[in-house]
């Protein structure tokens, strides 16, 4: 029987635990708060931000919205971040990507105080992750590791193949898997014979943004599949980067889309904010 790695169930469990931790913080007069900076009116970004707000409100986490116009200058955005960095009532800062062209996203990411970097994208936090001394982890890879752990899937000594090398998914999940003693292969659009490599995977992580890119013939029976992709098919239905109907029957375990990695990403964001707030009471 194929095991479904259900991110909705685990994220619900995590959110219930967070509610208790937030109540404890409130008893210590600490109101955990996340600042969400949204520049412009990108449709997908607005949806992501709305979902983050909803999830935060549900666990009792305060969010502060900073909506800036598409034409905002880099200087003005950096000034806002500098202000949030020193505001002790703000525990986490999230700048929704992508940013408009006039703004250097790398510079903005590096301007966030690493101790408030809930997304784990600051170069210092990325460096710590690669040195196997993680401080703040990128939410999607962190959520994947938690989902695997919840299902007692031990990655040590396994061959993990990752399709995609983005800064937010492919690269950091490679570091986390390596830290957990997996043998890691990272593939991307320039990889030769990519499908020969995916067929060798004990654990296959797919983050390409290509709908149903991985088919039955690309995996070996018994593989554990983590599908990060979120794509719309011709009918508008949300589908992953893996052809679930074809691949699920031969996999030992697989994440569904929706309801797999997505809910875990948001749960990790909330958890990281609470963790940062707990530092204020020595937690
Ligand atoms: P990016 O576009 O930043 O990166 C995609 C990666 O896939 C690149 O490394 C690219 O290679 C590689 N790739 C693209 N096409 C191919 C191909 N034909 N063969 C091999 N490799 C290929 O995407 P993200 O990592 O940001 O996101 C990936 C997917 O995951 C998207 O669908 C996104 O919506 C989803 N996502 C979901 C999240 C969640 O919470 N569920 C969170 C973040 C993302 P190259 O580097 O050579 O260009």
SSE arrangement:
Layout: E1 3-4, H1 7-27, E2 33-39, H2 43-59, E3 62-68, H3 74-85, E4 92-95, H4 105-111, H5 123-130, H6 139-150, E5 159-163, H7 170-179, E6 183-187, H8 194-198, E7 203-206, E8 224-227, E9 231-232, E10 238-239, H9 244-247, E11 253-254, H10 261-278
Parallel strand pairs: 1-11, 2-3, 2-4, 5-6, 5-7, 7-8, 8-11
Antiparallel strand pairs: 9-10
Helix pairs in contact: 1-10, 2-10, 6-7, 6-10
This protein binds NADPH dihydro-nicotinamide-adenine-dinucleotide phosphate.
Distance between the termini: 41 Å
Which CATH first-tier class of the largest domain would you pick?
Alpha Beta
The SSE order reads EHEHEHEHHHEHEHEEEEHEH
Unreliable runs: none
- Helical proportion, percent range: 40-55%
Please provide a brief summary of the model:
Helix content is 40%, strand content 16%. By secondary structure, it is an alpha/beta fold. The protein has two domains: 28-114, Rossmann fold (3-Layer(aba) Sandwich), CATH 3.40.50; 139-262, Rossmann fold.
Features:
single chain; alpha/beta; 283 residues; binds NADPH dihydro-nicotinamide-adenine-dinucleotide phosphate; Rossmann fold; 2 domains
Structure description:
- The mean pLDDT is 97.
- The relative contact order is 0.17.
- By secondary structure, the chain is of the alpha/beta class.
- The protein has two domains: 28-114, Rossmann fold (3-Layer(aba) Sandwich), CATH 3.40.50.10860; 139-262, 3-Layer(aba) Sandwich (Rossmann fold), CATH 3.40.50.
- It is 40% helix and 16% strand.
- It contains ten helices and eleven strands.
- It has helices spanning 7-27, 43-59, 74-85, 105-111, 123-130, 139-150, 170-179, 194-198, 244-247, 261-278; strands at 3-4, 33-39, 62-68, 92-95, 159-163, 183-187, 203-206, 224-227, 231-232, 238-239, 253-254.
- The strands form three sheets. The chain has a six-stranded parallel sheet. The protein has a three-stranded parallel sheet with strand order 3-2-4, sandwiched between helices.
- The chain binds NADPH dihydro-nicotinamide-adenine-dinucleotide phosphate.
